[in-house]
Amino acid sequence: MRPCGRLGTIIVALALMAAGPAASPVNLDLEAGAIGGLPTGWTFGPTSQAAGYDAVLSADTPEGGKTSARLVRSRAGVAGGSGFGNLSQKIDATAYRGHRIRFRAAVRARPAGGWAGLWLRVDRPDGRRGFFENMQNRPVTSSDWTFHDIEGVVAPDATVILFGLLLAGGGEAGIDTASLEDLGPADLAPHGAAKAYLDDALGWLEREHINSAKADWKTLRAEADLAAAGAATPAQTYPAIRAAITTLGERHTLLFPPAPPRPPGPPVAPVRALPQGRFVGEHIAVLTLPTLLRDLTNPADDGRAYRDAARDFIALARDKGTCGWIVDLRDHGGGDMWPGMMGLAALLGPGPHGVFINAKGREPWPVIPAPSPVGAPVAVLIGPRTGSSGEMIAIAFEGWPSTRFFGAPTIGLTTANSPRVLSDGAVLTVTTSRVEDRTGHLYDGPILPDEPAPGDAAEPAAVAWLEAQGCRSGAAPTNPSFPPGPKPPMTPVHDGQSPPSPS
Questions:
Q1: DSSP letters of 24-54?
Q2: Dihedral, CA atoms, 388, 391, 395, 398, nearest 10 degrees?
């Protein structure tokens, strides 16, 4: 799965900064420190360094004074890097508790394949989150110095305040002439549109979540109001909603920010990765299914191209006399399961192929109309990137004769979600169901392969098994790839479907 995207990764990585808080901000004018070194009082963590970023004090055209700070991605990252660069300070929150604060600074940016912005976060005891914003929805795009600010409320029990400059992706960004201002006592309750938004999201969780009956909703709602202290916009309640999800003790429920605005005019289906087919020899067909993350707010993004790509390749391979099939789900990380299921119908046999188990009881998966079964053995490739709806498609093959699984254990998100598009376009996908396969096996965690095979060994093992079933490969066909050409880029937005589908 894509993919609360990068936001969730950034929140987690920022939490890993280990330095203790300072009593108050220092060197906000970025004038102290040695040129080429780290600005005095500012922190630049090892995960940012590992990701290929550098942060230095620079005399190159500051906004004010003699110097500013420069954050740049100067080299390729290594394993363990964060995927973003972060120059920050962490201060004790005691003096600001119950107050509204404003972090303001001059910023300039030349991002490459990413974005840059200020960020401000309030932490509370026991790892609980307070206010958080990082300008991802309003990134800095000007290479000239421009002032930006973030306002937020410091919870009454806040422990630390963190703030700084963030650069995700390549390029560079600069910061200068910063300030952290105490604006005085704040209205601690979320209000107006923010309160209505938070209540709507919590109501959806309470009604639908698989663990709802186990939760103390009075306490959970009070905690969410505190986490959203002072929130005035829907986006400012996201940390409180994510904290409530964490409290429910289940890792498949997710909140995704709104998709980027679409251009004016009729809705247009996005260009994205589609199922790809090829042949091993003349008689073994390999069909690779990628992640499918549809934009629920775009009616043209209906998954038909994805379905048709799989269906058309199966028809082509069937006409060529294919006697063995490999369905590769190793890079299917989630999204909408149904276009893939419909595209694979000829390989899946008669339905229903699974059952959702939820508060309403047992709900068999919809029976998908299909041509007559192919009637040839199927090898299914799975691995540690197979997740959510990718796992659902794998489960659909379980129990079907002459089917065998190769590879490594899957992610383990073998539950089903129902999505809700919130008023600002964000998508809240709530885990509503557990899943049984057609044999009655109830899943709880990863799907295990019948034949473990690391990495590139999975496909050869599958080919060997298919040949042992009597399907012998010969010379490569004259048209070994369908459809031809490189994979198009994938649209980084979230999807779900109704009936419930993993996300």
A1: S---TTS--S-BTSPPTT-EE-HHHHHTTEE
A2: -170
Q: How far apart are the first and last CA of the chain?
A: 7
Return the pLDDT at 473. Answer: 54
Number of domains in the chain: 3
User: Given this model, what pLDDT does residue 14 score?
Assistant: 43
494 in helix, strand or coil? Answer: coil
**Residue that the structure tokens 């007559």 belong to:** 372
Total Cβ atoms within 10 A of residue 313: 23
State whether the Cα torsion 238-239-244-247 is positive or negative.
positive
Q: Are residues 417 and 447 in the same domain?
A: yes
Q: Does 265 have pLDDT greater than 90?
A: no
Distances (CA, A) of 264 to 258, 261, 305, 339: 17, 9, 23, 27
Contact criterion met (CB below 8 Å) for 101 and 161: yes
Per the listing, tokens 């383990």 go with 412
By the 8 A CB rule, do 340 and 393 touch?
A: yes
Residue 148 amino acid letter = H
Is residue 259 in a domain? no
The answer to whether residue 495 is domain-embedded is no
Q: Are residues 203 and 305 in the same domain?
A: no
**pLDDT score of 190:** 84
Residue 90's pLDDT band, with cuts at 50, 70 and 90, is: very high
SS3 content of the chain, % helix, strand, coil (to 5): 25, 30, 45
- What is the residue-wise DSSP string for 446-474? PPPPSEE--GGGHHHHHHHHHHHTT----
